[in-house]
Amino acid sequence: MTVDEVLAGDEVAGRAMAMIRGWASDVLTRFDGDVSGRGIPGPADAGQVVSPTALEEWARCPHACFVRRLLRVEPPGTPEELVKISSLEAGSLIHVVLDRFFTRQSLAGAVPGGGQRWIAAQRCELERVVLEVAAEFESRGVTGHPLLWRQERNRLVVDLGLLLDDDERLREQTGRVHVQSELTFGMREHAAVRVRLPDDREIWFRGSADRVDRAGSALVVVDYKTGGAGSFKTISAANPTADGTKLQLPVYAHAA
Questions:
Q1: Cα–Cα dist 181/221, whole Å
Q2: Is the pLDDT of residue 76 over 80?
Q3: For a tag on the chain, would you pick the N or C end, based on fewer CB atoms within 10 A?
Q4: Are 246 and 225 a contacting pair, CB within 8 Å?
Q5: What DSSP string describes the chain?
Q6: Distance, CA of 149 to CA of 89 (rounded, Å)
Q7: Quick one: CA torsion of 231, 234, 240, 242, rounded to 10 degrees?
């Protein structure tokens, strides 16, 4: 054991003792949840780079955002997640599939434009990519019981085929053409995106838009969602961010 390891161990023990003393006292302390005067970082603080989803969570429930984002407390897993793929992993799988599929088609110059349709060979390629990515997730042990996973995987193949149908209709109606898959900003070597607030403060954002299309002179950002549409019904022309709870598309559009 090195000197540094001993010092690190003493520091952890000291923090544990301070927490125990705080709990045992009759005074409300930071160990009981009193964080007043503790300098909780805000999204507009210098050097802070935040994601749109983090601000959405803060707008919906500041306490939940504090517990999850700052205290790093996550809810325990549910029993059914042990036998089937979680919603989070399923959504991640779909994002990987679509990014890989559209990137390969784009590099080949094969993404249809306007009223053109996806041909049978491309639809077969999408199914092949689903199986390819599914095998990668299976190797990580996150897909659950094999029988339930086989059913879910087959459903994903059907759903993604329907997505191509929707994509054809949208492009026919709008004349949209594919520009880029995965527009990343504020992560790795990509610069963060600045938004100036009315009081001259600035927020710097990081994120990744799933896809960018072009319709005439306009850019269109696409974000794939695998859950229900109920939470998006409050969006309107008068309230486009649903009181700050839907910030992804506006931020992605600004980044594009």
A1: 10
A2: no
A3: N
A4: no
A5: --HHHHHHHHHHHHHHHHHHHHHHSSS--GGGT--TTS----TTSTT-EE-HHHHHHHHH-HHHHIIIIIS---PPPPGGGGTB--HHHHHHHHHHHHHHHHHHHHHTT----TT----HHHHHHHHHHHHHHHHHHHHTT-SBSHHHHHHHHHHHHHHHHHHHHHHHHHHHHH--EEEEEEEEESSTTSPPEEEE-TTS-EEEE-EEEEEEEEETTEEEEE----S-SGGGTT--SS-TTTTTT--HHHHHHHH-
A6: 12
A7: -70
The tokens of 84 are what?
Answer: 């089937």
Rg (the chain; Cα; Å): 23
The pTM assigned to this predicted structure is 0.74
pLDDT in tens, 200-216: 889 999 999 999 999 99
pLDDT given at position 9: 55
Instruction: Find residue 183's DSSP bridge partners.
Output: 209
Residue 241 C-alpha from the chain's centroid: 17
AA identity, residue 12: V
Q: Distance (Å, rounded) from C-alpha 31 to C-alpha 185? A: 36
Question: What is the predicted pLDDT for the residue at 46?
Answer: 67
The answer to whether 42 touches 201, Cβ cutoff 8 Å, is: no
pLDDT of residue 135: 97
